[in-house]
User: Fold this.
Amino acid sequence: MLTKIPNLLTIFRIIVVPVLVVLFYIGGAAAIWTAVVLFSLAGISDYFDGYFARSMQQTSAFGRFLDPIADKLIVIVSLFLVVGFGHLQGLWMLAAIVIVAREIMVSGLREFLGPYNVVVDVTLLAKWKTTIQMVFTGFLIAGEYGPTLVPYAIEIGHYGIVFAAVITVITGWDYFKTGYKTVQKLDT
Assistant:
């Protein structure tokens, strides 16, 4: 189970989380660029763990359980970091709040529906949502150093995370419609 490539990639994403925290506290260009690279590798690993799981026929209950947790951990902790270290300020922070709130609410919905054997499948848009969140969070992680590599990196990060928040709300609404239908059936 733990030796399967998809699961190792998922575990890698989880291990990256505390490393990102340490790198933010170290600060400076080298630490932040290292954080950007690690975060990017973690984002890429999210694609490949699913690809390898399907192509190598290594899907597992462990992987289905851990993959969304790894995604949520890296996105939420990274958003806390970019807000806490001033890479995302003012009204732009609302996008981060929306994303974190949705992730918590959907996790709660899944937890609630679990005992009723209701599985809310991950939609294609929800998979894209995670990718979009990771791409634009990467720009935010780069912060003040981003424009040295990508002109307008800060603006791309700001507007991109708002776009990610909109997609996050749309996919959250889809999940809640499914959950609401189930709750209505349970109440009758």
Notes: DSSP finds six helices and no strands in the chain.
